[in-house]
């Protein structure tokens, strides 16, 4: 396996990679699902609701890049409900706006980040807003250390915009002396479309935390792996199912290097 010990900093997508975005979102979408007729296909395959929600959210990323992520979530939920001819009270719609601050971390996340923090600077590059990421870092991600957090709200656009990654590159250079061009930065993410496609376009080396997304039934909202691979849009050099597996391999490589 390629050498992971040469990097100085790791940048992470947060939702879907560190935080269980799909199950958290599905929980907040449950009032809509409850209102649907029993024959509706979303009862059998709830992930379809998450995917359709994500379609609306990504449309808003592209058409309203200045819209804060909490407002994006609420508006996406409103459009999804309208599309399904379901009327939901405003308080039900608006509750989803603070979801990213309370949705659970994956079981392997915090322990994995603690291991990785022994070897690298840790940076979040997220499409959420400042308030939600602050709550997530203090709540579901509590115990882990992050050296910098860069949000779409601060940047003014959403991944996969190259502007978000250029902001990351400038911040890593300015704050930590870590230069992407010199191979010091490694990006770690679940989403193929939001993270790994632009990473290839920008020459940013990356690790795919697949979380089942290497199989069609696990694609979720991260993109169609086989299609994107066939189109030559991916160039990640490592694949692990979880942050925990990635951290274990990093630990193994650093230990082996010390014994040389």
Description:
By secondary structure, the chain is α/β, with parallel strands linked by helices. 48% of the residues lie in helices and 10% in strands. It has 12 helices and 6 strands. Strands 3-2-1-4-5-6 form a 6-stranded parallel sheet, sandwiched between helices. Helix 6 runs parallel beside helix 12 (243-258). The longest helix is centred in the first third of the chain and has 17 residues, at 47-63. 40% of the residues are buried. The mean pLDDT is 96.
Furnish the topology, listing elements before pairings.
Blueprint: E1 9-12, H1 21-35, H2 41-44, H3 47-63, H4 69-83, H5 90-95, H6 109-116, E2 121-126, H7 130-138, E3 148-151, H8 152-155, H9 162-176, E4 185-189, H10 192-202, E5 206-209, H11 225-230, E6 238-240, H12 243-258
Parallel strand pairs: 1-2, 1-4, 2-3, 4-5, 5-6
Helix pairs in contact: 3-4, 6-12
Q: Give a count of the beta strands, DSSP E runs of length 2 or more.
A: 6
- Approximately how much beta-strand content do the residues carry? 5-15%
Can you give the mean pLDDT? Answer: 96
- Number of H/I helices: 12
Alpha carbon gap, first and last residue: 17 Å
The secondary-structure element order is EHHHHHHEHEHHEHEHEH
Helicity, as a percent range: 40-55%
CA-atom Rg in angstroms? 18 Å
Please describe the biggest sheet, giving its number of strands, its sense, and whether it closes into a barrel: 6 strands, parallel
Given as residue ranges, the uncertain stretches (5+ residues, pLDDT < 50) are none
């Amino acid at each position: 396996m390629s050498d992971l010990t040469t990097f100085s900093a790791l940048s992470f997508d947060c939702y879907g990679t560190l935080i269980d975005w799909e199950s958290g979102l599905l929980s907040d979408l449950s009032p809509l699902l409850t209102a649907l007729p029993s024959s509706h296909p979303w009862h059998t395959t709830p992930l379809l609701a998450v995917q359709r929600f994500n379609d609306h959210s990504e449309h808003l990323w592209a058409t309203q890049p200045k819209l804060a992520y909490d407002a994006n979530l609420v508006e996406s939920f409103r459009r999804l409900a309208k599309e399904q001819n379901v009327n939901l009270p405003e308080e039900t719609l608006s509750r989803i706006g603070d979801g990213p601050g309370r949705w659970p971390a994956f079981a392997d996340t915090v322990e994995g980040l603690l291991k990785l923090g022994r070897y690298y600077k840790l940076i979040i590059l997220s499409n959420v807003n400042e308030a939600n990421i602050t709550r997530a870092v203090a709540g579901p991600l509590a115990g882990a250390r992050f050296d910098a957090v860069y949000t779409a709200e601060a940047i003014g656009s959403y991944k996969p915009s190259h502007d978000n990654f250029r902001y990351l590159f400038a911040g890593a250079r300015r704050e930590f002396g870590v230069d992407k061009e010199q191979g010091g930065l490694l990006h770690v993410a679940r989403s193929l479309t939001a993270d790994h496609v632009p990473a290839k376009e920008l020459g940013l080396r990356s690790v795919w935390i697949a979380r089942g997304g290497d199989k069609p039934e696990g694609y979720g909202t991260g993109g169609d792996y086989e299609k994107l691979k066939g189109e030559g849009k991916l160039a990640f050099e490592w694949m692990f199912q979880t942050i925990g597996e990635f951290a274990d391999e990093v630990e193994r490589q650093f230990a082996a290097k010390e014994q040389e």
